[in-house]
């Protein structure tokens, strides 16, 4: 693996509220990172920094040697093709068929002809186990199917990175496990770097080779699961074991 993201001193403020406070992180090419923390600790904010949807208040984010905050919207466009984001809701276009949803980025960003687009859409649907549903509308899909279609769309342009924001929210445990399997297969089989924000610890353990724990706007822990379990940090263990915090920092 080789370095892909380099974050140094990243700070994000909204007015007088500091959401991320001088955090550092290195993300390796081809790895899976589970990004954990209690609600409101800035996990989703960090995802939006990683593909340039928001700019930092201070500090730098480098992607493959390029400083994102130095790029304008035109220069960020090719970066966003390489760094896809799967939103919590899936964010499918309700007025489009499944085919239209997955084809949309291909029609916007490639010169594929109609047959190539159709073949690519079919291949992405096969990858997420949903062959032959191109003509269905999102309203006809279950929650798990919508998440799979959203994943297929996020993979349409063969990105190097996919950022997942709570991919198992609202899903039953078996469906959540199938989503975890698809995320892991994208990393393992396609070499996609995956950053997964989740409160679903079984999914986090399955998709993250490393875990990064945000607490009070800072990274309190970054390391492997074995290192997390060996850590003497009580806050980290409270979170991983689902206990209420009842001690001083």
Core attributes:
single chain, 249 residues, alpha/beta, six-stranded mixed beta sheet, four-stranded antiparallel beta sheet, globular
Give unreliable regions as ranges. Answer: none
Main sheet strand line-up = 6-7-8-3-9-10
What does the radius of gyration come to?
Answer: 18 Å
Give the class from helix and strand content and strand pairing. alpha/beta
Would you tell me the overall average pLDDT? 92
Q: Share of helix among residues?
A: 25-40%
Q: What percent strand? A: 25-35%
Describe this structure in words.
This protein is α/β, with parallel strands linked by helices and about 250 residues long. Helix content is about 40%, strand content about 25%. Strands 6-7-8-3-9-10 form a 6-stranded mixed β-sheet, with helices on both faces. Strand 7, helix 6 and strand 8 form a beta-alpha-beta unit. The longest helix has 18 residues, at about 175-190. The mean pLDDT is about 90.
Q: What can be said about this structure in brief?
A:
This protein is α/β, with parallel strands linked by helices and 249 residues long. Helices cover 38% and strands 26% of the residues.
